[in-house]
Amino acid sequence: MIKATMQTSEGKNILLLGLSKENVNKLKLGKPIHVTGSEVGLENDVLLVYGDTEAEIYKELQPLIGTTTRVEPTTPQTIQ
Fold it and tell me: Distance between CA 48 and CA 1 in Å, rounded?
């Protein structure tokens, strides 16, 4: 995996995570990728997960979701 931070000519900060085929295969096997925020200059860590659908991802992560968790579904079917 390639991890990089950059800034556009307009001053917008960008985090780039370049996934290799091996990374994608691990994700498909249910092995999330954890990026420590300090590695890339962020306050928060980043967790990459994979699922065939957003609803599937939500279901898998539901035990980890607490009262302070903010979930932003992109489709109404994500949270049922």
Answer: 12
* pLDDT at residue 34, as a whole number: 94
Closest among 22, 19, 45, 50 to 34, alpha carbons compared: 45
Tokens read off for 30: 């249910």
Residue 59, phi-psi category: left (phi > 0), alpha (psi -120 to 50), beta (remainder): alpha
Q: What is the pTM of this model?
A: 0.75
Query: What confidence tens digit (pLDDT) does each residue in 31-74 have?
Result: 999 999 999 988 999 999 999 988 888 888 888 877 887 777 65
Q: Is the dihedral of CA 75, 40, 5, 68 positive or negative?
A: positive
Q: Provide the token pair at 52.
A: 């065939």
Burial class (CB in 10 A: 0-12, 13-18, 19+), 60: middle
Neighbours of 53 (CB within 10 A): 11
